[in-house]
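The freezer alarm interrupted the setup, so I double-checked each line after restarting. Inputs confirmed:
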Amino acid sequence: MSIAVLNQVYDESKRLAIAGSVVAAGDFRLKKLLPPLEQAGVKAPVFAKVAEAVKAVVEGPEKQASQALLDLTALVSAVLYTQGETGIEGKLEPIQTVNLGGSVVQTSARMLKPLLEALSSTGSGRVELVKEAIERGTFNDLRLVRPAIKAIEDPYPELADMICEKVLPLYGTAIMGELKAKYDPKGRAANARRLKLMHNLDPKGTRELVKAALEESTKEVKIAAIECLGTDAEDLNFLLEQAAAKSQEVRAAAYISLARLDAPEAIPVFEKGLLGKDLHNVSRAFQDSTNPKHADLVAKLIDNSLLELPKQKTKDKVSEAIEKIIGLIGAFPAKANKSEEALILKLFHQRADFIKYKGSNYSGTDLLETLVEHMSGNSYDGTGSAVLRKELINSQKDLPPNFFDHIVQAGRWVYTPAEFFDHFSPYFVHASPTKAKGKKHPDADKWAVILDAIDADYIHYYYYYHQRENQPKLDPRWLDVAVEHELLGLAFAMKVKNSPKLNAMLSAKFDKMAAPKSKETGNLDDVITVMVYCEHPQAVDYLLKAYERQAKAKYHYYYWTFRVITMLPKSAIPTLEAYIPNVKKEQLDQFVEAIEELRRKPEETK
Amino acid sequence: MLLDETMVDSAAPDTDSAKNGRALVLKNKFTKLHIAEDVLLFGECQGSGKEPYKCSVDFVRASQPTFRCNCPSRKLPCKHCLGLMYAYALKKKFTEAPVPEDLAGKREKLAERVEKKAEEATKPKVVNKAALAKKVKAQLDGMDVLERLTHDAIRLGIGNMSAKLASEMENQAKQLGNAYLPGAQAALHRYTQLFSDEEGKFATRSEAKNEVIYGDALDQLTRLNAIIKQGRAYLKARLEDENLALPTDTAIAAWLGHAWHLTELKAAGLLEETVELVQLAFNSYDDTARQEYIDNGIWMSLTNGKIHCTQTLRPYKAAKFIKSEDSFFHVAQVKELCIYPGSVNRRIRWDAMTPRPLELGDYAKIKKHAHSDFAAAIKDVKSNLKGALSDKTPIYALNFKTVGKVGDYFVLEDAKGERLVMTDVGMAEEPPSCDLLTLIPKEALQNQTMIVRFRHDLGTRKLQIKPLSIVTGNTIIRLTL
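Predicted 3D structure, all chains:
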């Protein structure tokens, strides 16, 4: 069958349909197809039928042209529908599949729809819904991939950033095509996110896009592109140029990428930035650097500034010089370095000399405070120098008492749990929160500093506490201190589970606080929180007792009481449900919602 | 009586109702919980008023429970009935009790109604011939309007379509609704909507995009032409023969907008008995031309391997009162399956069904029923596509040897080396699915069954497929929603 001529007929009828059948009569292009159609019609009757239909269009009365054209199109389409091309030539390559990290999740439409709505609409409550879905692993359902990609454009940046950080990397390079298709270098924040994400997923494959964005793009995308640089030596010249850009944000991004390159040419640029208006930007760029040259540069600049200090004649100038040194100390990379240690130790040993300097805003004492704080390191993740921490601890006697918190903090990361206990627990012998009245011991206030330093001074919000689980362990003997002095925060920080002595203390403390004339009923939530967290066997019963006791108070804010319900094990649900008839009407909804949240909580793996 | 929480969840009309129903149990709002004859749950639930609501769920017809409640909610089942079922599923204490008199009465009445309905179904339907003739005449007048509008569109030229013209056509299309031709009206809307953007406003586009739209518009006009011709012939024949039954060999009645009743389908013999169905895909979409949300389920009959579809139509105005359908992961055992007229993927409906878990043997049956020879399947598809009113995007199950790529195209290959190219173009009812193949475990891309939607693109003259699901030996991986 000569399909080519039929295709031509279809194309010509389509042309006429677009232009209007009023111009169909006598159409020479369609007319021209009549002879080949008639010729083919001799062998295949369908061509003859098409020829007849063509004649009706080009030769028929104008009034009937519309109907004739529709009939012709219907006939040709029907034939063409039977002639569709299938197949494809070429070597069949296997698909590069991406492991989504588990079995393919198949969620019901009713479950997926609210999530899809959250990803594609605006309004409150969406972040929580998405967070929950991330925790449940719902995003492993293939069908959420595309909506998640679209959520990069969400008007609420927190949601869009969360999707880029936690969800989209799950899909790996499988989503590169989609990201590329939607990427517009002339766009705003969403496209900056797209570029960074593509670079994160496939740095090599995104290289050209990054380079192009540097040439022509909006400010947001350009900043993102600059942040993607620093992996190739050819980036250097461009980055050096951008480090002198007018926009502070562009300079900041350029410093970050320059810090990734080990280029001697970058050092003078950093030096200029550190001594000029970009001290903060370069400090940020150096934060995660492991390049010793960066620490060397900072050490050199501090050294030079120290030499300049004695030359300052006015209080303003002294203040300015000290401020510069303080700023430079903050520019040291988080990871400890030899030159940093040497410089800081040198400064620390010279503290008697510089402490005497008095400036209008900053003085030598401020410099000492910065120095001590720097030596104690980061209390959250433990980054910092062990050499500096040890020196700080060894100098405890020579330092003013107000630096005690830094000493404890340094000790936390330098000592073993047992050493830390041996060193600092004696302060609890001299004083305790419960025995603080009466004659005050010189070390009476230090227990509070220690508790603060080890994050045991109060009951932390449950979820927040989980984020700090990388803290050094505490010696088990601290539990005795907690029990003896009824320190709930310390017991909480100990993370012990179902300890008889702790349980006994908690029960006794609860009874005391819940006593009829007690004025501490407002704090019962603290006790039950520790009971729940430390797996007191009667935690749920105490929680309900606390509720009953609190209900007698004139005012009580129940938010935390109900939050504690969600922290209970799921085995508590029957007891809680049985208690529902006793819950006051005005708290019933909150109580039931808390049980529902507990029910929805994923099973904990032990 | 087997009733668990997931079954109650799926009986709920929406997630809020399920949540509220469960909360009633937790808040101990049920003051009475009884069970009778092991199939009737009934109780009283304290509401905001003085008197409690009396609710019951009767499983005397296991596949079609009856929900009763004297609350004013229009949802079915209401949260009180759901709460009653949750209470049972959550093992709350139900006391044995005799069937209350009022419920016994209602049960009797229901049984009578069911019996009467069954009897009526067997009786020949009395037709008000005068009214029918009047209706058919009105429909024929409507066909004239449709013809005039279609001819105007082609006479003025698709390329000359403007916002004003589109608006005029849509206004005149309302006459079709008044002429009992809602299906034809929707088909005309579908034509004008090709020219509007996502917000329903007339849009100007690039030349390349216009070319695609013009192709689709011409296809839609030929379909309207077919509706006019076939519809008019059918209506004229009906006018001449008052006893003329609805045609069962063509879907023209549905194209004109006839809503088939189950009794009509049964009376016409469009019925299969004792069928087991597996849902292969499910999607919901907003059909702006019909002004309805459509929940579309794709099912395979394990009995004969035919692929059917279920459609729950939820008009915008009544959407909140109609329960949206959900994906179904079990096997539906249907005693009486009604099948609409049509060619491939005929629409199905049932009165009642009983679920059973999907077993390994069921996956094997799907594979057995699927086409292993692409060439034969393609021939079948092409033969169906040529009908002007045929489904232009039919769904088939294909057993493939491998899924791979040739250049940028995803390709499905059978054991004989016959290939089909995959695409998302032109099939917007479901979200795009081709790219998802890169996220599927490797083992699911070899020697499995793929559920696909075919489409012939008149612009490129290519017959291609869109993947909807992959059926392996132990699971169905759904790619669309």
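Quick read of the result. Chain B touches chain A through 83 residues (CB under 8 Å).
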